[in-house]
Amino acid sequence: MSNVDDQLSSMLSRNWWLLLLRGIAAILFGVLTWFMPGLSLATLVLLFGAYALVDGIFGIWSAFAGRKQNENWWLLLLWALVGIAAGILTFMAPGVTALALLFYIAAWAIVTGVLQIVAAIRLRKEIRGEWLMILAGLASVAFGVLLMAQPGVGALAVIWLIATYGVVFGVLLVILAFKARSFARDLARP
Questions:
Q1: Whole-number CA gyration radius for the chain
Q2: Domain ranges of the chain
Q3: 144-154 b/e (C-beta count within 10 Å ≥ 16 → b)
Q4: Exposure pattern of 32-48 as b/e (b: 16+ CB <10 Å)?
């Protein structure tokens, strides 16, 4: 077990509740989108922008909370900053076309997914349940690639796809949060 991996898993363990909040926010985003598929594109743009900003803020909080104990805290910070950038871009250009919005969302999903996979691989020997973080990262990457490959799909299909992604990603983060809560106990065992 390396010191860096021990520090990162310890940071996730201490801040498990932030993962839980991020998961709940993603689930709420997905459920609201499912139950209101007739939302205008402008409303969806603002809802996505708000979600990306909230997710990024919680991510920054998590990264800074562990910066003194972990020299690789920047990985979590980078993940969070990508989310905030996607949120800011969304609010700066609310009249953006559906195609441009799809590419914003797709790029955000791919980059954050890759960063999650990297973090999970670093932690694979230190924690149980790292596959959940990998699965969440793969879901993000697959979602982003699908949006880039099929940009011409109808607005309703995109809304349902975004809603499904939000719920699946959120459920995986909630499960990971409860697993992360036990990381410290597992690390403390001889």
A1: 17
A2: 3-188
A3: beebeeeeeee
A4: ebeeeeebebeebbebb
Q: Please state, in angstroms and rounded to a whole number, the distance separating the CA atoms of residues 24 and 85.
A: 21
Give the pLDDT of the chain (190 residues) as one tens digit per residue. 567 666 777 777 778 888 899 999 999 989 988 887 766 566 777 887 888 899 999 889 888 887 887 777 888 889 889 989 988 888 887 665 556 777 877 898 899 999 989 988 888 777 777 888 899 999 999 988 888 887 766 556 677 878 898 899 999 999 988 888 887 566 556 5
> Which residues does 150 contact at the CB level (< 8 Å), separation at least 6?
none
Residue from 88, 86, 65, 62 nearest 76 by CA: 62
On whether the pTM is more than 0.70, the answer is no
What is the sign of the dihedral through the CA atoms of 152, 145, 107 and 159? positive
Give Dmax over CA atoms of the chain in angstroms.
57
